[in-house]
Amino acid sequence: MGKGKAFIGIGMLCAVMTLCAGCGRQEKDDKVESIRIGVTVYDQYDTFVSQLMESFKVYARQKTGETGIAINIDVYNASASQSTQNAQVEEMLEDGCDVICVNLVDRTEPTTIIDMAESKNVPVVFFNRELVAEDLERWNQLYYVGAKALESGIMEGEIAAQAFKEDPSVDKNGDGIFQYVILEGEAGHQDSIVRTEYSVSTITDNGIEVEKLGYAIANWNRAQAQTKTAQMLNEYGKQIELILANNDDMALGAIDALKAAEISPEEWPVVVGIDGTDVGLESVKSGEMAGTVYNDKEGQARGMLDLAYALATDQDTSELNLEDGKYIRLPYQKILSEDVYQYLK
Ligand code: GAL
């Protein structure tokens, strides 16, 4: 078992068993019988990322069914350590993976991985945690699969603005100003930065004045969000009319705090999230969250798989319509309670 290898059994997910046919890249003219994809995730306990990986496995099985080519996938958990992740990539390259998919721990530190992959001529598909464009330019076999970050903030702001306009009781003190707190994901993550800025600017663009009471960084994490929200409830209490969370898990943590404080649901602030994870969708369905924004994990998983497959089998990637030859970015979708049934499994 490799260093920190997290999810077992995935290597055997292929419908067609690979005997020793092989991991190494095969010559173009040989018929490819199997490919090996190495994946490392920044934290296997992140709800959205783990659901994205589930979809990735589903599409890999489908692709094997369609093509007859066995797809072996090794998934490693970097447990929030960039040096662990670098060592995992080294191991995957030694194991002969044909392509590596990397959910960077530190999106500003891709250099070691890029250099190692380039020296072995193995393409890298980065996903979900976006490196800066200059780093993606460092070699012509680097790609990124993610989402259109800006949209998520805008849509979250639109959901909040709609709630304020449609229901006068949302403005608890009746001053015409939307008093809010915000729960932010990891500092420096592209989605935290963009969602924080655009959710708020979209509310004001919709003609609603806002007042920021407080904010907290809760690292995408439900338990941290509960603790931080409890502190803000102590400080601002009923003044809070809106809780904007950079993702669903933190919105759910905020709701945990509202429940723990025994605040009756009619008194709750509007709570909005992003992701549309299974638990997030359930919360929108029950009316606890006013809405969420769908982060298309199926689309991203399919994009990653199609791209990794094309690279591993030396196929032309032009059919994949990559932006600038390097990017796949999926759009977001707004989910209010009336839309939730289309998304629930
Ligand atoms: C975001 C997602 C968060 C978290 C983060 C990890 O796109 O909305 O919930 O998973 O990625 O990088």
Write a structural description.
The protein has 345 residues and is α/β, with parallel strands linked by helices. The chain has helices at residues 47-67, 82-94, 111-120, 133-136, 149-166, 190-205, 222-236, 248-260, 278-285, 297-312; strands spanning 5-7, 34-41, 70-77, 99-102, 124-127, 142-147, 177-184, 209-217, 242-245, 270-272, 291-294, 327-330, 333-336. The protein is 39% helix and 20% strand. The strands form 3 sheets. It has a 7-stranded mixed sheet, sandwiched between helices. A 4-stranded parallel sheet has the order 8-7-9-10, sandwiched between helices. The two termini are 34 Å apart. The relative contact order is 0.13. Beta-D-galactopyranose (GAL) binds at residues 46, 48-49, 128-129, 191, 220, 247, 274-275, 295.
Overview features:
alpha/beta; 345 residues; binds beta-D-galactopyranose; four-stranded parallel beta sheet; seven-stranded mixed beta sheet
For the biggest β-sheet, the strand order reads 1-3-2-4-5-6-12
Helix/strand/pairing class, anyone? alpha/beta
How many helices in DSSP terms?
A: 10
Rg calc? 22 Å
Q: Please give the number of β-strands.
A: 13
State the major sheet.
7 strands, mixed
Q: Could you name the ranges where pLDDT drops below 50 across 5 or more consecutive residues?
A: 1-29
